[in-house]
Amino acid sequence: MGDFFICPLCGNRDPRYIGYKNGKPYCRKCIQFRGEDADDRYKTPEKAKIFIEYGLSKEQEGLSNSLVMNYKRGLNSFIHAVCGSGKTEIVLSAISYAIQCGDKVGFAVPRRDVVIELWERFKKLFKWNKITLVCGGYHDKLDGDLVCLTTHQLFRYEKYFDLLIMDEVDAFPYQGNPILHKFFDRCLKGKYILMSATITPELFRQIKRDGTQVLELYKRFHTHPLPVPEVILDNSVKLPYILTNILKEIVSKNKQAFIFCPTISSCEMMFRFLSPLIKGGNFVHSKRDKRQIIINDFKDKKYSYLVTTAVLERGVTVKDLQVIVYMADNSIYDRYSLIQIAGRAGRKKDAPEGRVIFLAKNSTKEIEECIDDIRNSNGNL
Q1: Which residues pair with 192 in a beta bridge?
Q2: Using CA atoms, how far apart are residues 82 and 343, in angstroms rounded to an integer?
């Protein structure tokens, strides 16, 4: 019987993942994705004004105009742009144009922390519009002029979005998750704009095969290059002490730092090691209670440093931030995650530079390729 059932939500047809209740089939693969669906009757106001305090660079303006033109022509777009190039600013005109056409617009990212930060930004950029947040803990309201949501919440929107923008298409947990990819296809009524700074060659080839228009930007919006990581190699016993000395130097200059660790346990252990030696720190990871409050306090300069996992790898902007990666040779770090981490530094126009330091016992192919990619990007400036 299972051979004849295709899950309408995720497309699963494998009988091993099909159960029966009261004689009716259900899908075990996506059983956790249950909840209220968005009402397609919501009407956008056909009005949108962008409140932005700064102009776009010539390169940003060119890509912004191309996105609007592609949308008018019914074409999908992919923005391949370096970390800190201002991808969000580049899509603002396309969002505004779609809303003014009465179209339904969504902006999706894989991670909850990032979508909350984007929602806060969009509320300031589109003050006259209804900007809705949909993610874990926030799904009492599903419609709006612009819906900011995690990829997990796309299941609520069947054939809904005339324009869906998705940033960080290469990020966990979206990348390599067939259920979330099915949700993406299912929610589309119109066209999409995909964005990434660190796309894999395989995904890039797939995007081009699909006929998606590829737009590239190698410059950060302030035109300064990406920081090239410094690599410090030593045995694992000495690394915590090397890190301590570097962090003391950073803090003495009244600068802030992220210290990335590969696992939750190593994150907590590193904070326990550092906290008696250097005051004014805290730690965050995916299981940390009230981590958004801690992150906001860090942005308000209540802390000098945060020990963190990959939870802060993307979508976070802090002025004059310095970045340290502890155990950068750990297998959890590939070239793309290391590039994203390095991209946390030097993101502000009035603080375009910053140190990025990889601490490791041994160099790895991923570290070397990360540095090569950053240098190649800088060479295109």
Answers
A1: 164
A2: 8
